[in-house]
Design goal:
Blueprint: E1 3-7, H1 12-23, E2 27-34, H2 41-52, E3 57-62, H3 85-88, H4 100-115, E4 119-121, H5 137-149, H6 152-155, E5 162-164, H7 172-181, H8 206-217
Parallel strand pairs: 1-2, 1-4, 2-3, 4-5
Helix pairs in contact: 1-7, 7-8
């Protein structure tokens, strides 16, 4: 089977992305990043998802982006709550982590080259998303060009690196339905930006609201237990 590196955050989107890569006959190598995120429960979720999908290897790399600050996800600011859909769809929120996906993809590229794997999968979404510039198709296309210019395997023609974003054009409801078709257990995932100490999602941050909206539009109930329901 051809090898593929999958960036696995432990969230809903990355779990479905990994399941899609597996359904295409690829041998999965998962990469998660411990970047100083306040929602560290996602790393445990990534371990659970990796195990459920029988990945060949799961690497967790520490890169402390909290040292740079400038993001609510690394603790400098409060996580926004209860934002309406039109507000979430406009502007770049304070939950943006400077250059996060650039850093993540660079790590995935290094891992992929070491594995002689040409395929990298990333669960970015350009429909139901919170305005992050590093989730746009233009960014992905630019990084793919960079990947083939910046690596020995690319320059020597040994590998033609491809960045796969199978969820880019899907709504959250469509992503959820696709995941169910592939047997993804969404109860293993974690999406919340500001969970309580037990890991229960807040139901009020942008990520929770988009997730809950997706399940509602899919006509399904999210299997996670939310703080508001306790």
């Amino acid at each position: 089977m051809p090898r593929a590196v999958v960036l696995l955050s432990g969230g809903l989107d990355s779990a479905v992305t990994a399941a899609i890569a597996r359904s295409q006959g690829r041998e999965l190598f998962a990469l998660s990043v411990d970047y100083g995120q306040r929602h560290r429960h996602e790393l445990e979720a990534a371990r659970r998802v990796a195990q459920s999908l029988a990945v060949r290897d799961h690497v967790i790399v520490p890169v402390d982006l909290s040292r740079f600050g400038r993001s609510a996800l690394t603790g400098q600011y409060e996580v926004p709550k209860d934002r309406p859909a039109d507000e979430m769809a406009s502007g770049i929120p304070v939950t943006y982590v400077p250059a996060r996906n650039t850093v993540f993809l660079a790590l995935a590229l290094g891992y992929a080259e070491a594995l002689s794997a040409a395929d990298i999968f990333l669960g970015v979404n350009a429909v139901d998303y919170s305005g992050y510039p590093d989730c746009r198709p233009e960014f992905i296309a630019a990084f793919q060009r960079l990947a083939n210019l910046a690596t020995k395997a690319g320059v020597q023609g040994q590998l033609d690196f491809q960045i796969h974003t199978p969820l880019a054009g899907l709504t959250k409801a469509q992503i959820i339905r696709r995941g169910l078709e592939l047997g993804v257990d969404f109860g293993l995932t974690h999406s919340c930006y500001d969970p309580d100490p037990a890991g229960r999602p807040c139901a009020r941050c942008d990520s929770c609201l988009l997730r809950l909206k997706g399940f509602a539009e899919a006509g399904l109930k999210d299997p996670l237990e939310y703080k508001a329901e306790s």
